[in-house]
Recover the amino acids of this structure.
């Protein structure tokens, strides 16, 4: 019989070890669930590709779209590290009689601010990232009688978490302005990222540089042509409308709201540059 924890460590030590992960079609990130017994926020890891495919089919029967991605041992350090940035704290893996729940800190130590090199900037918003993942997964699957209330609760959490955070904005390296996302209805949104990994997914060609912006300074840096910001466009892809305030006293506290008409990823048309 399989001992999940032992097998996990064995494969991590094997240069040719392989793993299979469930990826949400709604977020293009690992599929996340809240464990019903422990309330851990968990992702799903398998040692056998066919077993992972069966799990994906089971979720498909529940109208939850996921795909299966194969990872090699050399990719797992980055995978585990990114889970911390996503707000995930546990991994469900196969075990002898029922799946085992392995805490992430049993596998890898979380990097703390004190471990960062001098001068390095720490930008991470795990609670916001996690709530946005749950929102995207919930919003983009068939509705149930409980869906509307659940989405309203998650929206409130997202807005509250956003107001507490610092984020990465993209600027063109050649000084040609900021990248903007044009929706099919012609509205423009400025991309914003919860952490360096999400910025890197967007900046694969190295066209942009990142700048750190605190949420209460949003009104000062948001492009005048932007209706709002779009959070982690390569992942949860979540537009947030910014209600611009005219009162000088209110400039430090921009009001955010979620526009349900802008949630679906396929509504994004193209990336455009905009010069202030």
């Amino acid at each position: 019989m399989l001992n999940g924890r032992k097998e996990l460590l064995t494969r991590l030590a094997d240069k040719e070890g392989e793993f299979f992960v469930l990826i949400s079609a709604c977020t293009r990130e690992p599929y996340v669930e809240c464990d019903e017994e422990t309330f851990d926020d968990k992702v799903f890891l398998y040692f056998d590709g066919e077993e992972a495919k069966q799990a994906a089919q089971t979720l498909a029967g529940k109208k939850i779209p996921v795909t299966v991605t194969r990872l090699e041992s050399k990719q797992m350090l980055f995978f585990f590290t990114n889970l911390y940035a996503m707000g995930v704290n546990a991994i469900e893996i196969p075990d002898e009689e029922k799946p085992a729940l392995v805490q992430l800190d049993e596998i890898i130590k979380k990097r703390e601010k004190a471990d960062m090199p001098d001068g390095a900037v720490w930008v991470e918003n795990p609670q916001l990232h996690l709530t946005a993942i749950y929102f995207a997964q919930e919003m983009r699957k068939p509705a149930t009688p409980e869906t509307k209330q659940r989405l309203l609760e998650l929206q409130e959490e997202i807005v509250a978490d956003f107001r507490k955070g610092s984020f990465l904005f993209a600027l063109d390296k050649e000084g040609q302005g900021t990248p903007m996302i044009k929706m099919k209805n012609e509205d423009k949104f400025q991309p914003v990222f919860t952490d360096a990994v999400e910025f890197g997914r967007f900046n694969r060609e190295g066209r942009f540089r990142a700048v750190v912006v605190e949420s209460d300074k949003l009104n000062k840096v948001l492009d005048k042509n932007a209706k709002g910001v779009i959070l982690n466009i390569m992942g949860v892809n979540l537009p947030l409308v910014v209600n611009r305030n005219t009162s000088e006293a209110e400039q430090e506290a921009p009001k955010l709201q979620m526009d349900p008409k802008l949630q679906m990823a396929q509504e994004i048309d193209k990336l455009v540059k905009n010069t202030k």
Summary: The longest helix spans residues 147-162. Helices lie at 4-13, 49-61, 76-86, 126-139, 147-162, 196-202, 218-221. DSSP finds seven helices and 14 strands in the chain. Confidence is low (pLDDT under 50) at residues 248-253, 260-270.
